[in-house]
Amino acid sequence: MRQYGYTEKYLTMDGLPWFPVMGEMHYSRYREDLWEESLRKMKAGGVTVLSTYVIWIHHEEEEDSFDFTGCRNLGRFIRICKKVGLSMFLRLGPWIHGEVRNGGFPDWLQQKEREGVILRSNDERYLRYVRRFWEKVYEQAEGYFHKDGGPIMGVQIENEYGHVGGLKGEAGETHMRTLTSLAKELGFIVPYYTATGWGGACIGDLLPVMGGYCEAPWDQRTTELEANANYVFSSERNDALIACDHHVGDQVTFDQTRFPFLTAELGGGLQVTKHRRPVAHGKDIGAMSLTKLGSGVALLGYYMYHGGSNPKGKLSTLQESRETGYLNDLPEVNYDFNAPVRQYGAISDSYREIKLLAYFLKDFGDDMAALETDILTRGVKPEDTKTLRLSSRHDDEHGYVFYNNYQRRRVMDAHQRTMLIGKCRQPVNFPPVDIGEGAFGFFPYRMRLGNAVLRSALATPLCCLHTKKEDIFVFYGEQEPEYQ
Questions:
Q1: Of the four listed, 27, 145, 155, 396, which is most buried by Cβ atoms within 10 Å?
Q2: Per DSSP, what are the bridge partners of residue 17?
Q3: Which class for 405: exposed (0-12), middle (13-18), buried (19 or more C-beta within 10 A)?
């Protein structure tokens, strides 16, 4: 059985560096007869870990009446994940947001507040309802945890806790610990327990996961937004745009040096709101992913990777809306998210773009994960359209140079005959290269290819094809390739 863990720099599998790609799909927002087809599309795109919200209102819309049938059949979805060969993260909530009515809380639970029940707290009355729901979820998952030989290797507790609602400070940390203890008591025993860490959220000693989106459909403005910071190489893990309609602070609540830089909500697209309807394109997602990789990320986790449709409610529509006290109106049914795999299963240009990185990480991620990050153009501002953004991940012997000349909804200056330098004990000078407006990518130097060493290449490694005779290393790029 595989052994999973983590260091301060990266995740591990059997004690070695491990660099997974995670993609979010909500089983209850997609037709159950198409689950296997969709999961295979995700795996074909390079996804190795599937993440999914367990949305309370989708399962207990009416109090004490649980529904795990049809598109809500979590147990069947888990079994198909195992069949397809995807590991799995259950994002248990109990509150999840996810552009769902009441953030996923059933209406009847919301109404308990009138009786004095304090939701998202250690109020024993609230925790009894959480226990009852999680017991039903556990019945669906029982026997399919990693320790049982199943796919479930991780659990996320709550979501944006202390950032979007909930308690703050030590009270908030205590609540997160209480929920974690409850999950373990009920049998949710996994190698990884995570919590979202952006915007001052409480993590309760769990492994923090971060996010980043190329736009902010929840922003209450209808004007052009400032240039997005996710296209600048930076050691800053916090995306101040996430849930900025609830903004309570930009500072993370944990010591970032203790944990690897993991993302669970790197935007695979954008879900439109009534007042703001940006469209994400493949280069938007690809350049942002590349920039995170060059900034030291150790897990590319996409939300959403697969779009869907809100299920039909018995008592109401199930989307987030101002009618339910939120700041945004979302479509009643559509949860397409402009994702790599769209609402009805179509493949998008984002899928084709980010699978290039996913394929690379599948074959070379163990090498990338262990390398130190060295941001070469530190301090560049997102509105700076003249400076070529550069970073490197390397050790003393070899590494990769990252370049990004793309900024969403901005025009960047082209850079002719750029001289890139690979940093290590003996620096490597690349041949001059032209980097055009909107270009982004990375080049290897002193890269180990089997028994050989590639001194440098003006092309990007994609994968290794294992044949009976030999291993074939595949590269790609828009430049005229030069290999040394």
A1: 27
A2: 12
A3: buried
Do 376 and 299 meet the contact criterion of CB atoms below 8 Å apart?
A: no
Q: Which residues contact residue 389 at a Cβ distance below 8 angstroms, ignoring those fewer than 6 apart? A: 231, 232, 233, 291, 377, 380, 403, 404, 405
**Residue 192 near residue 209 (C-beta atoms within 8 A):** no
| 270 Cβ contact list (under 8 Å, min separation 6) | 213, 214, 215, 217, 278, 279, 280, 337, 338
Gap between the Cα atoms of 258 and 436, Å rounded: 38
Residue 103 has pLDDT above 90, yes or no: yes
Query: What is the pTM (predicted TM-score) of this model?
Result: 0.97
- Please give the Cα distance from 131 to 120 (Å, whole number): 13
**Ramachandran area for residue 291 (φ above 0: left; ψ -120 to 50: alpha; else beta):** alpha
Task: Give the CA count within 13 Å in the CB-facing half-sphere of 143.
Answer: 5
How does pLDDT run across 114-138, given as a tens digit for each residue? 999 999 999 999 999 999 999 999 9
Q: pLDDT per residue over 279-311, tens digit each?
A: 999 999 999 999 999 999 999 999 999 999 999
Task: Give the CA distances from residue 408 to residues 98, 280, 439, in Å, rounded to whole numbers and listed in that order.
Answer: 24, 9, 12
Structure tokens at 180: 């974690």
Distance CA 484, CA 470 (A): 20
CA–CA separation, 123 vs 117, rounded Å? 7
Q: Are 163 and 100 in contact (CB under 8 A)?
A: no
The gap from C-alpha 79 to its chain's centroid, in whole angstroms, comes to 23
